[in-house]
Specification:
disordered N terminus; 4 helices; two-stranded antiparallel sheet; three-stranded mixed β-sheet; 186 residues; alpha+beta
């Protein structure tokens, strides 16, 4: 009986501890497409360059992934200190992608080449999303373990600064990801 009570208490305490690895945050996906067409790979590429709305630093790109992490936390005010007791994050992801116009006159070899290219393009863009997911998880872990502050105002200021620093860090990692993959071409 005493052993059962001890196990029950330990399980209760364990449930209160922040998890070291959190599940993937709530993620909302939005796909924005621009239509391209052509009957050869060269025609399709020319149409992509003509129609792509994705421009960055004077360069045109085929696709773009934008992610935004939103965080929310609740705290307990003990009067002499304030401590976070719950954190949630949400990730909004918007993919801007080309969509090849369906046309029966496109040769099967061109369609097969497009499908292979598009799968690689999606894989690269999903790499950007994965960085957003990692940022959201890191924010949750960081804020759950921030520790108490003397005031709730200081806690709020510190928590938001820490979360923004994580977003900045993953934005830099995204730039490095694009450099190292040559925007997915490698």
């Amino acid at each position: 009986m005493l052993e059962h009570q001890l196990i029950t208490r330990l399980l209760f305490i364990f449930c209160l501890l922040p998890s070291a690895t959190l599940a993937e945050p709530e993620t909302r996906i939005n796909n924005v497409y621009y239509q391209v067409d052509g009957s050869t790979a060269e025609d399709i590429w020319t149409d992509i360059l003509a129609k792509s709305p994705v421009k960055e630093n004077g360069k045109q790109h085929v696709a773009y992934t934008r992610w935004d992490v939103n965080w929310k936390f609740l705290w307990l005010d003990y009067g002499s200190s304030c401590e976070i007791n719950k954190v949630t994050t949400k990730l909004d992801v918007t993919y801007t992608l080309p969509r090849l116009k369906q046309d029966a006159s496109i040769p099967q070899s061109v369609t097969a080449h497009w499908e292979k290219y598009y799968a690689a393009l999606l894989d690269h863009e999903h790499g950007h999303k994965r960085l957003g997911v990692k940022a959201a998880i890191e924010i949750e872990n960081l804020l759950l373990n921030i520790g108490p502050r003397l005031s709730c105002e200081q806690l709020e200021l510190d928590a938001n600064n820490m979360a923004r620093n994580v977003v900045d860090k993953y934005s830099r990692l995204e730039n490095e990801y694009d450099r190292s993959t040559n925007h997915g071409l490698n």
